[in-house]
Specification:
Helices cover 27% and strands 28% of the residues. It is of the alpha+beta class. The protein has two domains: 35 residues; 95 residues, OB fold (Dihydrolipoamide Acetyltransferase, E2P) (Beta Barrel). Strands 2-4-5-7-6 form a five-stranded mixed β-barrel. Helix 2 links the parallel strand 1 and strand 2. 13% of the residues are buried.
Length: 162
């Protein structure tokens, strides 16, 4: 009996395995690339959130990059030169005062003494906070009069008649 030459089974599947191997490598490279881009986007989008006291106490924030700081406007600290959009002002919370600069148009609520101001930017080594984004929160719109700083004799009891 004469045996016919047969090809080993592995050689018939070799082209299919090579195609699968290329597909697996391509998918792995895409996953690594998307993971890297996602990580770098997340890193640049995050920032620390500090109060004025915490920021002034910390001092140098070069290692943190962009930070957000919360406070309220110091009365009579706002200054803008005529014809300019560059403004200088001070924020406070607790006892510390933070000088800040911003170039742009500010919302009207910025000048409300009850507004909570959130600045995003970087703290200069010379002690000035240079901001590129200003957010204003006005919690007094959502509080009832009894929680406001209204004197007790001003808040009337609805059960009493005038």
């Amino acid at each position: 009996m004469q045996e016919s030459p047969t090809t080993p089974p592995s050689s018939t599947f070799a082209p299919a395995l090579r195609g699968q191997r290329k597909l697996i490598i391509l998918i792995a490279l895409l996953l690594v690339a998307f993971g890297y881009f996602g990580f770098t986007a997340f890193q640049s989008a995050t920032s620390y959130y500090l109060t004025v006291d915490e920021l002034v106490e910390r001092g140098n924030t070069a290692d943190l990059g962009s930070v957000q700081v919360k406070g309220s406007l110091v009365a009579d600290s706002f200054y803008r030169e005529d014809g300019s959009i560059m403004v200088r002002f001070e924020l406070t919370e607790g006892g510390a005062v933070l000088p800040a600069t911003y170039e742009g148009v500010l919302p009207d609520l910025f000048f409300n003494e009850h507004s909570e101001i959130i600045l995003a930017g970087e703290y200069d080594p010379n002690g000035t906070f240079v901001t590129d984004r200003v957010l204003i929160k006005c919690p007094t719109k959502y509080q009832s009069a009894e929680y406001d700083n209204t004197p007790a004799d001003y808040v009337q009891d609805p059960t009493q008649s005038s």
